[in-house]
Amino acid sequence: MLKIINHKDPGFAEVVDRLVNRSNLDLSEQDETVRAILADVRAEGDSALIRYTEKFDGNAFTAEGLAVTPAEIEAAYKAVSIEQTAALKSAAENIRAFHERQMQSSWQYEEDGALLGQLVRPLSTVGIYVPGGKAAYPSSVLMNAVPARVAGVERVVMVSPAPGGQMSPAVLVAADIAGVSEIYKVGGAQAVAALAFGTATVPRVDKIVGPGNIFVALAKRLVFGEVDIDMIAGPSEILIVADESARADFVAADLLSQAEHDEEAVPILVTDSETLAGEVLLELERQKDLLPRKTIIEACLRNRCRLLVVETLEAAVALANRVAPEHLELAIREPERWLNQIYNAGAVFLGHYTPEAVGDYFAGPNHVLPTSGTARFSSPLGVYDFIKKTSVIGYSQEKLRKIGGQVKILAEMEHLQAHAQAVKLRE
Question: In this predicted structure, what is the pLDDT of residue 24?
């Protein structure tokens, strides 16, 4: 049963410690299955991809049937309302405008006979995984594809499961709006394998981004090095720091917006007001009964939700930094004043009228965020994930002669005589 945990309670420190150390993604059970799928797709290409797609998704495709056709995209627009299409276009514009500000340029400078610099180039081909089993996620298409296009990626390849042979019209419309180059009706570990190794139908990519189930997560982890990946995503999470100025119904609604994702989601309230915590508890009970995903929500609230009461707002912010949540809401007076005290969070939402849903769908910053405490050292998906950098070094003969002795000293310190000789020959 969900209850309030006060900082004075004997078990408070243990509860906090479990939250801070919640990164416990155990993939051992699925390891053998996923490794076999990866090996088969690598060896057999399309035939293995088709076999596993029929086995797991019930779709009996030929290789030619894997790709989404222009006619299917045209039909998708007819199946989506004008209002839905307009909302997707508006969200895409906001996402594009935000990510354009992340663009980086090549640079170089000359100094005493040396030319030094850095080339910034987009990746050539990127693969986007979009979940498509239990629900459709057009927002994930926009958040992954738009930054890739802004970065200058020439070929954006999307894969997604197609239950019953059909992909969500909203997902197809979002892909068209975002500038996805090609779309394939495959999902799971076999789709990751196809992107990583390439088949006769699905091209090999340079990087795979996007969330998926535990099989997709493990497949991405195993192909890293063959291709780059964005991150291994854990359960979605929100931590709300709230004071007595917060409205309990707002706070409860935002906690429930995480709880409805799945049973493993992590909704957390940290407040210095025991009165607010009690009101939020009542609101959670009231509001959850009105929601269609009540069964999932109840399991999440029972096992994963935490309502924590601390002594001061300073203590609440310090705890938030320790937890390093994916989403952090500052439902407090003067949230901007506390922003400089936030060091570990995927995204920060300021004030009482910025629900996490605004960031998930529309505001512009990316909703692909570090989870499971990895906000301590990683960042949201961005344009910088779709570029690579190359160093540039050019020395004149005079410059090499001037510093050659020091280079030889350093090479000889490491007992690498050929390095030293390569410099000596040019002096």
Answer: 62
